[in-house]
Amino acid sequence: xxxxxxxGWAFIMPAMVMIGLFMIYPILSSLWMxxxxxxxxxxxxxxxxxxxxxxxxxxxxxxxxxxxxxLVVQVPIMIVLALLMATLLNNPDLKFRGLLRTAIFLPCxxxxxxxxxxxxxxxxxxxxxxxxxxxxxxxxxxxxxxSDPFWAKVLVIIGITWRWTGYNMIFYLAxxxxxxxxxxxxARVDGVPPRAVFFRLTIPMLKPxxxxxxxxxxxxxxxxxxxxxxxxxxxxxxxxLTLSMYIYNLTFKFMPSFGYAATVSYxxxxxxxxxxxxQFYVARDRK
Amino acid sequence: xxxxxxxxxxxxxxVMAFVSVFPFAWMIIGATNTSADIIKGRSWPGSALAENxxxxxxxNNVPEILYNSFKVAIIGTALTLLxxxxxxxxxxxxxxxxxxxVFGGLLLLMSIPFAALMVPLFVxxxxxxxxxxxxxxxxxxxxxxxxxxxxxxxxxxTIAFxxxxxxxARVDGLKEWQIFAFIYMPVMKSTYAAAxxxxxxxxxxxxxxxxIVLQTNDKKTITLAxxxxxxxxxxxxxxxxxxxxxxxxxxxxxxxxxxxxxVQGMLGAVK
Lengths: 287, 271
Hints:
A: 287 residues; MetI-like fold; two-stranded antiparallel ribbon; 2 strands; B: 271 residues; MetI-like (chain A); transmembrane helix (chain A); MetI-like_sf (chain A); transmembrane (chain A); transport (chain A)
């Protein structure tokens, strides 16, 4: 009996060692680092100096605002689009269902860096997107996607939505397929309008999956890095700079400031914790 | 009313499908056009494919870059799968109240974003002398990228692993590690297949951590090569399109060949 128990630990140990060394130790050492100030390896204890510096750092505040904007605008758009497409694709009478589903899912296989570069070339000033929009008489001047602070943010949001909507849709489709069709049949017989079916039936039943995808998307958006680096390089100015990119810049681009960078990274940890908590709270079962 | 709704459905889904697929077509057409034509929005095939290829091959050591990418992704995937499946097996088969507490604690770590780890991980990797090595890329990214997620996935899947198989193997005198290697692993091969796809994708497409660790050109992976070509002052989009095709092809192939396992793997977490 005793040897069986020790065997069990032998299976778990390699994972524990790796997680301890490369996750638990860094997260604790990051907490310690955030209490230190100074450049490079010359660190001295600074207490809460870094926290004060955060409140007076315009670049940090800009990055926080940008990341928050991406989160608040992009995640709802994507979730609604994904839900809508999943509901439509769940109709067994729909023709080309498999083809449409595969097409919409396809963006998930691309690397973030590769699609960012593709988008950069498509959204060039005289590029294919502006030409198409002008051709459709939707705009009469090309949109400065990459050089205008507002449109650069829009471009990043379009990019993330393109890459991740199909991914989220797959979760909803799988959940929808687990719902007994007879419930929908009953609603149809009772003459419930489609809109009510969507809001009163589909959404409540998908709540756990929606919560899961919201939490995942929130964590993902708070870490946004690959796209902004390769699509807009954080610009123009700092218009699309994100928290992750700022941490990277603080550590690897400017004179390294490990203590302060660690403090900014804890901002992300705290935001993830708070936002996940809020989402769980909002989605809880009201009795 | 009904036909209008049907039309709107097809219209909406059709536009969405087109928008989803267009960048792939753009990438393939772009590979045959010159950089100047690409940013002028030329969306029909041209004749610059050979030129783009030779630009890419002369400015970059393509075989080396692909070798690095495959090396990091394959070793990283194999290591993640081995360590994670062992742990998932251990937590489920040798269940105890204490182990369940440990498991719960580990799950909490799943929501820690990588951005929060990168600074201390960089300092740590420097201390053990692994900066600019592939091992320095692999070890931390195995631990921080998908180990917890896959461990959780395997624990869930292990619930369905029949305990009679284990008991029979014990009676036959197999050691615990032999049961794992010769009974569990073959029985769970569809779980391994789904997990392989997910982890390989994450490792192959990984960017931030390799960017931090790898500093010389001879170590670079394909994502890093694309990024440094793409963020130049005047990027050569023709060569870049060829490079993005190279970066996308492996994952695209896996997707089309193993579509069912692909989707199954992605859904693993919510089942």
